[in-house]
């Protein structure tokens, strides 16, 4: 099948690619789960952050985020503390153990990326990363009321 025969849109292609990544990203290989990797990567980039910001940044619902944070805390990878400026909020930080686990997982993840994205040049991979980040940032900033409006 040639490239011109592929008529699926980008969302279908991203979903298929995501399934390949998910299947290859085992806890045995990463040392942590893929969901924990995503949470720790967000915490690294936004440390400290509020629980609400983490929920929004990971594109998950609040209950799921609480369960994920419970797992991260039980494993000693992250901590929640009351925000001294607003006791109703929790601030989330990554522990030193979380930093080590993230470093190990990201190193293993690079191997998976190399295998799955082998058909792309380094420049194409950088462009793909930039475009995905841009699309994600735009989608996350969109008001919730517009997320599921029928066309």
From TrEMBL:
<dbReference type="GO" id="GO:0006950">
    <property type="term" value="P:response to stress"/>
</dbReference>
<dbReference type="InterPro" id="IPR036388">
    <property type="entry name" value="WH-like_DNA-bd_sf"/>
</dbReference>
<dbReference type="GO" id="GO:0003677">
    <property type="term" value="F:DNA binding"/>
</dbReference>
<protein>
    <submittedName>
        <fullName>DNA-binding transcriptional regulator, MarR family</fullName>
    </submittedName>
</protein>
<dbReference type="GO" id="GO:0003700">
    <property type="term" value="F:DNA-binding transcription factor activity"/>
</dbReference>
<keyword id="KW-0238">DNA-binding</keyword>
<dbReference type="InterPro" id="IPR039422">
    <property type="entry name" value="MarR/SlyA-like"/>
</dbReference>
<dbReference type="InterPro" id="IPR000835">
    <property type="entry name" value="HTH_MarR-typ"/>
</dbReference>
<dbReference type="InterPro" id="IPR036390">
    <property type="entry name" value="WH_DNA-bd_sf"/>
</dbReference>
<feature type="domain" description="HTH marR-type">
    <location>
        <begin position="1"/>
        <end position="137"/>
    </location>
</feature>
<dbReference type="Pfam" id="PF12802">
    <property type="entry name" value="MarR_2"/>
</dbReference>
